[in-house]
Write a structure and sequence with these properties.
CATH class of one domain: Alpha Beta
Organism: Halorussus caseinilyticus
Distance between the termini: 66 Å
Structural class: alpha/beta
GO molecular function, one term: DNA binding
Function: Has ATPase and non-specific DNA-binding activities.
Bound molecules: adenosine-5'-triphosphate
Keywords: ATP-binding, Coiled coil, DNA-binding, Endonuclease, Hydrolase, Nuclease, Nucleotide-binding
Number of strands: 16
Oligomer: single chain
CATH architecture of one domain: 3-Layer(aba) Sandwich
Strand content: 5-15%
Shape: elongated
Number of helices: 27
Cofactor: a divalent metal cation
Length: 674
């Protein structure tokens, strides 16, 4: 895919996107999280890029939301959906859904939505989803117990690039290798020439090591799982609770994850634990062993009567020998016993194996002395041996684990992606359930719908509880005026029509019992202005309507939904408020005349319906939201507009009520004026 062909993507953004592992997949699937991980791309921008890619794929000219109010209602609809996501990924992903006039795009989302509404957003699934998030890139790994060694400068550079996690050392000969082996638990020599050399320590000659980085640095593989452990577990749980077929064996994944902790260390290995404990406890264990030996020796000395013959004593003194010699001569058995106890104590308390034990035993010298003292050099040697054994063991275990996990990464990524997508599906499912939605039709029996037809529509955006929203039936084909009492629900009806139209063109279910909508290319919703407009604003409003009136004549080719014709839905709320009442009626009548016969479906809410009809040169259809009457001073309204019916206005209703209540002639005469 040519990245710069996407609307809104310039060379800089294209360069940032091409740094992603698979920008095409991210764009194709609308993976906003992945797109936002490109350098310098914010989440909002990522959503816009994803929308651009979709438009490009469907040859969608965009521009469906043609006015601010239309855009506002789209945002409101999106918010209702976003409120029903669990993950922040889901929220962002929803931004890729937008209303479109192109059938293929709408169809694509409809398939998704139909799958979504079959889902059961169970409590357990939602709970598991809470811990799913887009996979994190593991932090840079640096491994200090291993190094690479080579005699060759070119190999050196190659090694640094292939395995940046390890330090690479230049060596000249076997002696250099031996030096390195003292500083590292494992040295991997890259040159064939070292094959067969005998060096102390763990030195491996592996000329092909650079081709097997995951074996040399299993940490690289493990870092991904370590960084994403909780998320992978949660994604596994999502699959289980939602009953989705996982791309890999969940039990096996989970038991492998049990064996790495969050910083990539292997856990749950007894031998490793033993070695780690021995290293930690070494100093304390040596001190205890010393004390054991000295206590033993002290009490042995205290209990012994040492008889030294005069000549022996003399000889000892002449030799300048100290008490140690006396000890050696007289108490060697006791010393041997005490030292043996110390050695046993050390070996037992650290749970050393036989090789380690033979080093440990040398920590207490054969030569009798009091007090018994450790040989610090031997203790250090033991410490190094234990550390090296631990490092080697850890690396081996990591290598085994990494081998297990290496080829599961793609599946693990899929596991998380499916879980995140499920969040989006469940948000749609919950939206549909919460607002009793239905999938709208764009026509029936092969014929495209003309205008809109809504049955039992209930707007979730009203300022009353959804349970108290009264269902509205309304259909318009062509352009109609909508009359009605104050607060009868005219604006709310326009909002409902706009919302249903937007959701339908997003490919989503709509809050109605039944709905059929023409495939529109643009939605123009003009909200009621607050007060009369000044000359400039009035002029620009007129210009907007002039633009609407220049659309093509209604033709068969424009109703095929191919995107060739921008059929428009025009919703206008009390346009009369832009100027004086007399002029308003003339202007609205003129606009209606212009729109007639073009690719426009329209609803013009107005209190001047009668006057407009009088001014217009054709019989403008008028629908009405009718008050059934006044009850306790409150209007009782039938919220569904009555077709071809000019609703009585609120003043008329009040005069009628007064005329009925009083005997005077005034109200009757007033009523006759209506
Ligand atoms: N379908 C409905 N179900 C329940 N309440 C509704 C419904 N439609 C409207 N209402 C209530 O009536 C109020 C007034 O509705 P709305 O503003 O749409 O009336 P209007 O006819 O446009 O009024 P005006 O002529 O004063 O502009 C809403 O705020 C809402 O509380």
């Amino acid at each position: 895919m040519e990245l710069e062909a996407i609307p809104g993507v310039g060379s800089k953004t294209a360069a940032a996107l091409s740094e992603l592992d698979d920008p095409e997949r991210a764009l194709r699937t609308g993976d906003v999280a992945e797109l936002a991980s490109a350098p310098g791309i914010t989440e909002g921008r990522a959503a816009a890029i994803a929308r651009g890619a979709i438009r490009e794929r469907h040859d969608d000219p965009g521009g469906f939301l043609a006015t601010d109010r239309a855009e506002e209602l789209y945002r409101d609809a999106l918010d209702l959906l976003k409120d029903r996501t669990v993950t922040s990924y889901g929220e962002k992903r929803l931004e890729t859904l937008y209303p479109s006039g192109v059938a293929s795009r709408v169809e694509e989302v409809r398939e998704f939505a139909e799958r979504a509404t079959d889902r059961d957003p169970g409590h357990e699934v939602l709970e598991a989803l809470a811990d799913v998030e887009p996979l994190a890139d593991p932090r840079d790994v640096s491994v200090r117990d291993r190094c690479l060694a080579t005699t060759d400068a070119e190999r050196y550079t190659e090694a640094q690039q292939a395995i940046p996690e390890l330090s690479v050392e230049v060596v000249e000969d076997t002696r250099d290798l031996a030096d390195l082996a003292r500083g590292y638990s494992t040295v991997v020599a890259l040159d064939e020439e070292f094959a067969g050399v005998a060096v102390d320590g763990d030195v491996r000659v592996e000329p092909d090591a650079l081709e097997r980085p995951a074996e040399i640095v299993p940490e690289r593989v493990l870092a991904f799982y370590a960084a994403n452990r909780d998320c992978l577990r949660a994604a596994a749980e999502v699959h289980r609770t939602a009953g989705i077929d996982p791309p890999l064996d969940l039990d096996a994944l989970e038991s492998t994850l049990e064996r790495v902790d969050s910083d990539g260390t292997v856990v749950g290995d007894d031998e490793l634990d033993r070695l780690a404990r021995a290293i930690d406890d070494l100093d304390a264990a040596v001190s205890t062993a010393e004390s054991v030996a000295n206590d033993e020796l002290r009490s042995a000395i205290e209990e012994r009567d040492v008889t030294v013959e005069g000549s022996d004593l003399l000889s000892l003194v002449e030799q300048g020998a100290g008490v140690d010699s006396l000890l050696s001569r007289e108490l060697s058995d006791e010393y041997a016993t005490a030292v043996e106890q110390a050695r046993e104590e050390l070996v037992d308390s650290l749970d050393l194996d036989s090789g380690e034990a033979s080093v440990a035993r040398r920590a207490f010298p054969e030569e009798p002395a009091f007090p018994v003292e450790r040989d610090e050099e031997v203790v250090n040697r033991l410490r190094e041996d234990l550390q090296a054994a631990k490092d080697r063991r850890a690396t081996r275990r990591k290598r085994e684990l990494a081998a297990d996990l290496a080829d599961r990464r793609a599946d693990a990524e899929q596991l998380v992606r499916t879980a995140l997508e499920l969040d989006v599906e469940l948000a749609v499912a919950r939206f549909a359930e919460d607002f009793d939605c239905v999938m709208p039709e764009f026509g029936s029996d092969g014929a495209e719908a003309s205008g809109f037809e809504i049955e039992g529509g209930r707007s979730p955006l009203l300022d009353v509880d959804f349970a108290d929203v009264e269902p509205v039936d309304y259909d318009v084909s062509g352009v109609a005026l909508l009359s009605g009492v104050n607060s009868g629900g005219k604006t709310s009806t326009l909002d409902l029509v706009a919302l249903v139209t937007i959701l339908a063109h997003m490919g989503l279910p709509v809050p109605a019992e039944d709905a059929s909508v023409e495939r529109f290319g643009e939605l123009h919703y003009h909200a009621k202005t607050q007060g009369t407009l000044d000359a400039g604003a009035f002029e620009s409003t007129l210009r907007e309507f002039a633009g609407l009136a220049t659309g093509g004549e209604r033709t068969a080719s424009h109703t095929d939904g191919s995107g060739g014709g921008a059929d428009r839905l025009v919703l206008v709320d009390e346009l009369e408020s832009i100027t004086e009442p007399g002029a308003s009626a003339k202007i609205i009548a003129g606009i209606l005349e212009e729109l007639r016969g073009r690719d426009v479906t329209g609803v013009f809410v107005s209190h001047l319906a009668a006057e407009i009809r009088e001014m217009a040169d054709y019989d403008v259809p008028v629908d009405g939201i009718e008050a059934k009457g006044l009850e306790d001073g409150e209007l009782v309204v039938n919220r569904s507009p009555v077709k071809n019916h000019l609703a009585r206005s609120t003043p008329e209703l009040i005069v009628e009520k007064l005329a009925g209540d009083s005997d005077g002639q005034f109200y009757d005469r007033l009523l006759e004026k209506f």
